[in-house]
Amino acid sequence: MIQFILRRLAVAIPTLLVLIVISFILMKVAPGNPFAGERTVPQAVLDNILARYGLDKPEWQQLVEYVYNVVFRLDFGPSFQYRDRTVNEIIGQGFPVTFTYGAWAFVFATLIGVSLGIVAAVRQNSWLDYLAVGFTVGAQVIPNFVIAPILVLVFTLWLRWLPGGGWNGGHWSNVIMPVIALSTSYLANIARITRSSMLEVLSSNYIRTARAKGLPSYQVIFGHALRPALLPVVSYLGPVFVGMVTGSVVIDLYFSTGGIGQAFVNSALNRDYSTILGITILLGALTITANLVVDILYAWIDPKIQL
Amino acid sequence: MKLHAFLGAAAVAVTLLGSTALTNAAQVPEGTTLAAEQVFKYRVLDNINAIDPQIVEDVDTSSVVRSLFEGLYNSGADGNPVPAVAESHTVNADNTVYTFKIRDAAKWSNGDPVTAGDFVYAWQRAVDPATASNYAYFVGLVGVVNADAIVAGEKPVTDLGVKAIDDKTLEVTLSFSSPWFIRTLSHATLFPAPKAVIEAKGIDWTKPENIVGNGAYTLVENTPGERVVAKRNPNYWDNEHTVIEEVQWLTINDENQGLTRWRAGEVDQTDVPAGQYPALEAELPNETYSVPQFCTYYFDVNMTEKQTNEALKDQRVREALNLAIDRDVIVNGVLQGGQTPAYSFAHPLTAGYIMPNIPASTMTQADRDAKAVELMTAAGYGKDKPLSINYIYNTSEAHKKIATVVGQMWAEKLGVTLVLADMEFQTLLDTRHEKNYEMARDAWCGDYNEASTFLSLLDSKSDQNNSGYANADVDTFLAEAKTSQDPNVQYAKIEEQTAKDVPIMPVYFYAKVFMQSANVKGWPFNDVEQNWYAKDLYKVAE
Fold first, then answer.
1. How many whole angstroms separate alpha carbon B531 and alpha carbon B186?
2. Are B226 and A258 inside 8 Å of each other by CB?
3. Is the CB of residue B294 less than 8 Å from the CB of residue B276?
4. How large is the average pLDDT for residues A128-137?
5. Which chain A residue has its CA at the smallest distance from B425's CA?
6. What does the mean pLDDT of chain A come to?
7. Is the pLDDT higher at B345 or at A299?
């Protein structure tokens, strides 16, 4: 196990380096620069700005210095767009926000989704099943950029229960709607995967054996069927977790949470090179970690899998 | 609601001499019952950048900076300058040396007095290559001696034409005669800056725990993408007249979300989503506003050698295209928000500017169309010999609609095919600047309330001259206007020449369309630049 983790981490480092180099090249190839605005600045001014950020150096040197600072000092450099902030500050401010609503959404989607899937599978073709399937189909096809404004319309404008946006340091009233809007479609997917996987397991021979020897229903389901049924769910949860905690532009856009999703998109549109790279590296590292965790969970759930 | 008449701003500029002019503050009429909670919440996009007077470049962040800092003069409710940190000023006969008397009561938020030296430091900081400000050029643009040379690194910052005679007297020397210099002082670049704090804290000086300002408010919170909060500054010299206790700039990126939250009472002011003005105006006439905005929307025609479309090099083709744009349809049919048709470049409500009568502006659209067909035929194009033109614009519903409608007009009237290409804003800027286009969307908002803020773009040497227009006469008129007793003479000639050459096709003058809660009072509707100061606002009890 330890050897497996070490091996995976050893691969992760060159993967991240390749990610940095590719992002760096893509960024430089894209037209535009972070300092262009509706007002074209005189060349003398632009030269001063480029010199200040080290962008007057040869590109290979910029790349080497950047990688050096990231690897040895964990310093992602100054933001080119926000002149009074460093990328570390942008991530330090936005990531905890995103992580908070993302983690809650993850927990919510997983718990409700798995429960719904189990109920639907166990009571297949009952009204409970139809209700669950109907709900999940609905939740899947309504995108979150439709759910978000509807939530605000209902809970902010009509009922006046919840604030329509903002973060307020993570006050519960500001967290609820982002969590619902972000988790709905994931919840639906999880429920559907759980349901179909559970149905498959429930029709297998060893479950028939378990029932034949007279085990009570709950023991059959939770003792024998659940673990194998969760395998496909777990492999789905890895990328879902990364997707959720690294933020959703839609959530940030509609709820003004100050999360990192909006910062990521803004930085790409503004050609804020250092911020794009910083967030890309963060996302890359999280994806690699999440995949690792999924693999370990796999081995734990299914003893047949050797790491 | 109403399109506010702009008589105030359109009036001829009044020369302000001495302390005769009123200072500005919340003008609460007697007998008004003020609301118990004086918190003004203003919706912004996720674009609040560095709250640093010498760095800031966008409109929304400037509104934050105007609350936290104050320059020599503010812009008043009608857009004319009112004394702020400067109590008065004198100017020499040829308008090249301005001497300001700094108010004794002016203090920083930490209690230190605001001195002439704070302005010298700030202005030098703005042009210092080490500061690398995007707005460094502004100091030279308004005429301060040696600004451009310092930006270019050819002279030391100490050579800048600004000096402190004593703590309370500031002298500014200009490189050309400028009767409108006072009008540029409400721009953030020329605000003072607290030297001690900046030197001690570096880029962290604008953080709420470090920042020291001299405006009516002090910064309490700045959470990017969420909100900026400022509270009343008890050390502000005119604090007794401030009514609003707290200002919040709330980030709401989506216009419709902004409107929903405005309806829920979570923000006091928000922009009207595109196309919804007529409906909202009918539903909420007392809270829906459309006021002229200090910007012009226009098309660039690439006038340089890089342009490969031969037809566009023909003046007759350009004039025909320009005439065939039915601006009334765009303004009344597409935009529907109180915008006005534009046939010339400078905004008609620019202080002191008299908009010349461009021939096309007085014709009927039928006459314009007839003349357009005539010109096009003379140039050898028409429905039997169709012309194709490539047009670029940055991705946006509104730009797309306008381009589509104009393309349709040209196709029907002149047989022209307009090939549209949308691109990201940064890509558009690059492509336009490199002159790799045939026609492009463009727009300009004035930096200060004088016509040269628009017309100087037509100078062949201007960095902002996106069409690459070069006309020696226009350059000469621009130079003459700087020292002219009545620059309107030159401005009229410039507009007329440009209308003839058609390097740009002005389409419309902007309007700012917004919802404002009925209990908010004191908004500067008559300031064409819409430079609002939270200290001038107040909320009445409902």
1. 9
2. yes
3. no
4. 93
5. A269
6. 89
7. B345
Q: From the candidates B39, B43, B133, B134, which should be mutated to test the interface with A, based on the most A CB atoms within 10 A?
A: B134
- Answer whether A28 touches B (CB < 8 Å): no
The proportion of chain A whose per-residue pLDDT surpasses 70, expressed as a percent, equals: 99
User: Which chain B residues are Cβ-neighbours of A163 within 8 angstroms?
Assistant: 266
**Chain B contact set for A37 (CB, 8 A):** 57, 134, 429
User: Does the beta carbon of A31 lie under 8 angstroms from any beta carbon of chain B?
Assistant: yes
Nearest chain A CA: its distance from B45 CA (Å): 10
Q: Distance, in angstroms, between A294 CA and closest chain B CA?
A: 32
Distance between CA atoms of residues B342 and B331, nearest Å = 10
Sorted by sequence, the CB contacts under 8 Å of residue B183 that are 6+ apart come out as B13, B75, B81, B351, B448, B449, B450
List pLDDT tens digits, range B530-539: 899 999 999 9
**Contact in structure between A144 and A181 (CB atoms under 8 Å):** yes
| Separation of CA B146 from chain center | 25
Q: Is A171 within 8 Å of chain B by CB?
A: no
Q: What are phi and psi of B444, to 5 degrees?
A: -145, 135
CA gap B245, B216 in Å, rounded: 10
Mean of all residue pLDDT scores within chain B:
91
Task: Give Cβ neighbours of residue B137 (< 8 Å, ≥ 6 apart).
Answer: A41, A42, A45, B147, B148, B151, B463
As a whole number of Å, the CA-based R_g of chain B is 24
Please determine, for residue B1, whether its predicted confidence score (pLDDT) is greater than 60: no
Domains of chain A: 87-301 (1.10.3720.10)
Q: For A45, which of B134, B203, B252 is closest by C-beta distance?
A: B134
**C-beta of residue B495 within 8 angstroms of C-beta of residue B518:** no
In this structure, what token pair is assigned to residue B394?
């940055």
What's the pLDDT tens digit per position in A181-232? 999 999 999 999 999 999 999 999 999 999 999 999 889 988 889 988 998 9
Query: Residue B410 burial by CB count (10 A; 0-12/13-18/19+): exposed, middle or buried?
Result: buried
Find out whether A160 and A123 touch, Cβ atoms under 8 Å. Answer: no
- Chain B, window 243-302: residues with a beta carbon less than 8 angstroms from a chain A beta carbon: 250-254, 256-257, 260-261, 263-264, 266
Q: Cβ separation of A266 and B251 shorter than 8 Å?
A: no
Which residues in chain B (193-212) have CB-CB distances under 8 A to chain A?
203-207
Q: Which of B106, B135, B110 is nearest to B123 (CA)?
A: B135
3-state helix/strand/coil string of B429-490: HHHHHCCCCCEEEEEEECCCCCCHHHHHHHCCCCCCCCCCCCCHHHHHHHHHHHHCCCCHHH
Instruction: Using an 8 Å CB-CB cutoff, list chain A residues near B426.
Output: 30-33, 36, 269-271
Which DSSP letter does residue B34 get? B
Helix (H) or strand (E) holding B514: strand B504-516
Phi-psi region of B468 (alpha: psi -120 to 50; beta: other; left: phi over 0): left
The answer, for A88 touching chain B at a CB cutoff of 8 Å, is no
Q: List b or e across B414-434, with b for residues whose CB sees 16 or more CB atoms inside 10 angstroms.
A: bbbebeeebbbbbbbbbbbee
- Check pLDDT > 50 for residue A251: yes
A34-49 pLDDT, tens digit per residue, is 877 767 777 888 888 8
